Fold this protein.
Amino acid sequence: MDGSDHAFLAQVFERNYIAEGPCATQFREQLLQLTGSPHGVLASNGTLALYLALKGLGIGPGDEVLVQDITFIASANAVEMVGATPRFVDVPAFDDLTLDLDRIALTPRTRGIVVAHLFGTACSNIEALQGFCAERGLRLIEDAAQALAITDGVRHCGTFGDAGTFSFYADKTITTAEGGFVITPHEELHDRMVLLRNQGRRSSGTFVHEAIGYNLRMTDLQCALGLSQLAKLDTIVREKQKLYALYRERLGDRVTFSRIRDDFSHIPFRVVVFVEHAERTMELMKARGVEARAIFHPLHRQPCYAHLGGADRDFPHAVECADRGICLPTWVGLSVEQVDHVCASLLDAIA
Ligand SMILES: *Cc1c(COP(=O)(O)O)cnc(C)c1O
C-alpha cells in the first residue's frame, strides 16, 4: 500500500459508488486480459472463488475431490464447503509441491482434482494433470491463489483446468485486502457462476431470481485497490524477483530451494528453503529476531480432518516437506540489510 493506492481509493469516494460498480468491471476486464482467459467472475476472496468453481461444476455431496497434501487449507475446505469429501494425495518429492500423479487412487466417486500452484511457480506436472483429467473425465480446478502473472508466455496458471482461482488477500502478489477471481474456458460454467455469486440473477436491481445464488461479490473500494495494484504489478514483480535472487546469492547451495519451473515466470510468494530440521532452525533464528515461518502443515495431519484417517506412512514426502521447509520473508520493501540478517541467522542456525 502506498500513495498511488490512496489516490485510486479517493476516486471511488469522489464517485460515491462503493459497492460493485465500474471499478469492478474494469478490474475484471484487466484480469481477463492478464490471464488470457475468455471468462471470469470476481469473488469475495480466494476461498469463495474455489467454492464458486466447485459448486458451478456441480460437485457436491457424495463426490470426492483429490487435493494435494501440502497446500493452504482453503484448497480442501472449499471441497468440504460444497458438501464433497477431500481426499489427500502426497506430493512427488519434499521439494516438488504438486499433486503426485503416481499416488492417485481413483474411486467411482472421484469427480475431480484441486491442485495448487504454490509459492509463485507453476506445478511441475500441470500439463500431465491436465491430460490425466481429460482422459478420465475428471474436473481439474487450479488453485492459483499464489500464481497471478505466472505464465510461460502462452499459458497462464489457472488456464489448464476447468477453472482457475486467484486470491487478492493482503499477502498475495496483488492485494485488495480481501478478494478473489475465477477464470474458466467454459461459457456454461461462467454463466452458472454469474448466477451463484449474485443471488441467482444476472445483474443487481431485479427481485426476480432465476436460480438459487448467494452473495460472493466484491466492492468497488476493493476493486479500485486492485486496479491500483495491477498498475504497479511490474514493479512488485521486479522487487520480489530481486529479493529471491539475493537469497539465492547469499544462501547458495547450503540449503535446498523449492523447485522452480524455469519455463514459467517466477514471482516468489515466499522464498521456500529446506534444511535438516525446520523447527529447530526457526527457533534459533527467532532468538536472533528473525521470524521465519513454517511451510504448510500437511492436510492429512490437520486436526479438523482427523476423521478422514490420514496416516503419515501414506504421505512420506509431505511429512519430509513439513519437517524441513522454511518460508523466508519476501514482502516488498524488505531491505538488502534485512535479507542479509535473515540469511546470516539461517546459516548460523544450520551450522
Ligand atoms: C490465500 C490462498 C487461498 C485462500 O484465499 P483467501 O483469499 O485467503 O480466501 C487458497 N489457496 C491458496 C494456495 C492460498 O495461498
